Amino acid sequence: MLKKSLTATLALFAVMLLITGCNSGTTADKQTAEPVPKDETDNQEKTEPANKQIQLPQEHLQKHENNDSVKMLQEVLNQVGYNIDLTGTYDEMTTWAITDYQIQQENLSVTGIYDDTTKDSLKNSLENGASLKSGEGIGKNSSDAAAINNPHEILALVNKDNALPEGFEPINLVVPDVQFPFEDFLPKKQMRQVAATAMEDMFAAADEAGLELYAQSGYRSYDRQDAIFAANVQQHGEEAANNFSARPGESEHQTGLTMDVTSPDVNFKLTVEFGETDEGKWLKEHAAEYGFIIRYPKGKEDTTQYQYEPWHLRYIGEKAATEIMEKGITLEEYLGEAS
Ligand SMILES: [Zn+2]
Hints:
By secondary structure, the chain is α+β, with helices and mostly antiparallel strands. Among the domains are: 68-127; 173-334, Muramoyl-pentapeptide Carboxypeptidase, domain 2 (2-Layer Sandwich), CATH 3.30.1380.10. Helices cover 42% and strands 7% of the residues. The protein has helices at residues 2-21, 28-32, 35-47, 50-53, 68-79, 92-104, 116-127, 193-208, 222-236, 238-244, 278-286, 301-304, 318-327, 331-334; strands at residues 173-174, 191-192, 214-217, 258-262, 292-296, 309-315. It starts with a helix and ends in a 5-residue tail after the last helix. 34% of the residues are buried. The structure holds zinc ion.
């Protein structure tokens, strides 16, 4: 009540000021009439600072989580220009919006995950009243309905049922500062920055433990995968080739989040014996601490549709990697998409 009458008094006072301030009866006066609501706004801002109305979840959030914090995040996303249903579930649409937002910010890692740096950036966007163009970063969805519509998020599922869009190229490919069994630059040395940094940390820890890990093969373009698959079909027949090789679009190596690793004990080969080496055992134990999983584990061939590959590491972030490795499950099972 008190606030209401104060506002009314202020408004009246402003109107009086306007009347007394009228020197000429031109149309310009109509424009100067605007300060009336502005005074009210100023008054409100003093009692309720704008930044107190904005609530950003404090904790790290990612795909498939469901709680009130996710709903808060969805409200924030809508305030900066998205149009998301407030479901409280970190669904495909929420992941898509976070990814799209991250692509539009120069200093953010593109992950699709709501982490501390994304939180700080969103806070800035809100305070500056930034309004983003939804879809500007990630682009329109692929016209191919079967293709993954958000290949940039780090939890993207790429397999024989979920292909990357044709022509997809990952963002921020770099060569991780780790050892390779060859010197020259080859495109396959590359990974996405977010995965490369994690891989450097993991290799440093392995080195500390007295191990000799080598990176062998990371990023592969769509065209390169096309050539590899064609060569394998020619040599082994299509059915056999499909069991150990991927069709273009269906290889995780195209995401830039994968690296095949090896060691001198197996002559730098990508072979099942690598799993029995000290390096292979160490990875099984520790890869998740750096956000990596052994993507095609032993005994899960029916789910992954791949044979056991102890050398094939996929980056998905620490939170999901820890759960997957502890439970001994696959990415398909984690995402609830196991067939
Ligand atoms: Zn691989």
